[in-house]
Each structure stands twice: as C-alpha cells, then as structure tokens.
Write a structure and sequence with these properties.
306 residues; alpha/beta; Rossmann fold; UDP-galactose 4-epimerase, domain 1; 2 domains; 7-stranded parallel β-sheet; two-stranded parallel sheet; 10 helices; 13 strands; 37% helix
C-alpha cells in the first residue's frame, strides 16, 4: 500500500516509517526543506520537500496514494517562527484532508492525544477540532489517542529522555508534581506507552476495515504516578534519586510570570494538562497489536544509559 505520511521526521514519525516499510508499505513523506537528514531510511521512501502550508506540496504527497497518516503535532508554540497549534494541528490537518479528498483518497489515520476536548487548552482544542473535521470529511477515518509516548528517541525529543536530562541528571532533587498542597494526595497518574506499540497499532489498522470510524486510546500496561515514573527513569541509569514533592499550583505561579521565555521548562497550559493526568486502558492497544504492550521498565528504558 502506498501511504502518505505527514509528520515523518520526528520521534513517532521515525517509528512509523520503520513500521510501514517493515510491513511492506511504501511511505511518501513530506519533509521540510533542509530536514531530509532527519528522515529514517530516506533511500527507501518517496520524499517530497515542502511545507505543510503549501497546497502544491501537500497535493504532491497525496497524489496516487492509498491512505494518509497525519501525525503532525507540537508540545509548545513558537509563534514568531510560525510554529502554532492552530497552524500545525488543525489547519495542517484540514489542508491534508481536503487535498486527499480531491485526490480520491478515502483512508485516513489521525494521530490525536488522550484528553483532547473543547473547551480545553489550545493544544487540546486544536487536536479535538482536527478529529471532528476528519469525522465530517466522509473519509474512512481511524483516530488514535495515546497517553504519553516513550522509547529510544534516536535524536528526537522524547518524554523519558527529558525527565532524565532535566530531573534525574542534575545534582538536585527531582520534582514530584502533584495536585493540591499535600504531597500524599493528588498524585498524577499516566499510562506510558512504547513508541513501537503505537507505530504497530497504526500499521495494523491500515488494512483492518473494522477500525474505520473508531477512536482508539493507546496506553501501556501500567498506570504510574509521576513520582514512580521518575524513580524508574533513575533506576534505568543506576541512580537513586531524591524526589521533592511539588504542588502544581506552586509551579503555576512561576509559569505565569515566566512561561513566555523559551528556556522556561513548562507552560501554564502544559501544567494544566499535567494536572489532569493521562491514564488510558491498555485494552485498545492489545486489540490492535495482538501482543502484550511494553512496560515502562529498566529494560525498555535502557536507551537512557547512552
């Protein structure tokens, strides 16, 4: 199957390229000018250089394909650089869907996120609106809503690597975020899911007509507190880390004053989403991949040693 892939040079995108190729599919990937070096197995895929806002480039990618995967997403906006939730997570998806329909492509797999909704943060709202547009498009749509994704970043941005770099490596206590003011209450829980399991779910859904019209939440086999995730990240690199409880409300005070600065580690919106947690049942993932999902363990986090 010839598959158009938007968002193929990032963390999850690289694993989608691998999974598609390994399953015998032919990816056609949109790559920003000058970013081809970020693309996995570039010699084995069809590359189209251009921006997501370019109608000509998008039409070139979707022309003659059997299916489209939209995997573009960001965690933080940089408006001065043209990097916004509205532009990349909603308008980009709309442009691709409309181009695919004009090209006669009926199959669409959309990467969303757990917890998206309206009203919500700009991240949540743009993801949710993209879902709604896709469902109204008349295409054969499957939506994926993963929890936090981890795995070897292979040079890209990734959750566990960030925790290791910012909270485990420094000679200071790690920060154990929690809701409320009491450290013993309001623990934040997530269901970290391995990137290879996510990529496998996408590829399995491509040929499975029973997934059309469905939304799948993708979570790993465990629900872990923020503190437990930090401990496991530390243990994977042989560290025994002291963790200092930190109410999100207190961190929000700092973010209110400083999150406009690019170097400040979190924004107010990110803290809002963090406070909501990110728990997901693993049932959907097991149904799609037909295997036991990977745990958030020292074995699967061994890449942090390097």
């Amino acid at each position: 199957m010839k598959v158009a892939l938007f968002g193929g040079t990032g963390f999850v995108g690289g694993y989608l390229v691998d999974a598609l190729l390994d399953a015998g599919h032919q990816p056609v990937v949109l790559v920003r000018p000058g970013s081809k070096a970020k693309l996995r197995r570039a010699a084995e895929v069809q590359v189209v250089e251009g921006e997501i806002a370019s109608a000509e480039a998008v039409e070139q990618v979707v022309g003659g394909v059997d299916a489209v995967i939209y995997n573009i997403g960001i965690l933080r906006e940089y408006p001065r650089q043209g990097i916004t939730f509205e532009g990349l997570q909603y308008e980009g998806a709309v442009n691709v869907i409309e181009a695919a329909r004009r090209a006669g492509v009926s199959r669409l797999l959309l990467m969303s996120a757990n917890g998206v909704r309206v009203p919500g943060t700009p991240y949540q709202e743009t993801k949710f609106r993209a879902e709604e547009f896709a469902r109204r498009s008349g295409m054969d749509v499957t939506v994926f809503r993963p929890s936090v994704i981890f795995g070897d970043p292979r040079g890209s941005y990734e959750f566990a690597t960030q925790l290791h770099r910012e909270m485990v490596t420094p000679p200071l206590p790690g920060i154990g975020f929690h809701n409320g003011w009491s450290a013993g209450k309001g623990q934040i829980h997530m269901s970290p899911v391995h990137v290879e399991d996510v990529a496998s779910a996408f590829v399995k859904a491509l040929d499975d007509s029973s997934t059309i019209g469905k939304t799948y939440t993708l979570g790993g086999p465990e629900s872990l507190s923020w503190t437990e995730m930090l401990r496991r990240v530390a243990a994977a690199t042989g560290r025994n880390k002291t963790i200092l409880p930190m109410p999100i409300k207190l961190m929000r005070i700092g973010a209110t004053a400083l999150d406009w600065l690019p170097f400040f580690p979190v924004t107010r919106d990110q803290l809002t989403m963090l406070s909501e947690g990110n728990q997901v049942e693993t049932r959907d993932l097991e149904t799609l991949t037909r295997r036991e999902p990977a745990e958030f363990s020292s074995e699967t986090l061994s890449y942090l040693k390097h």
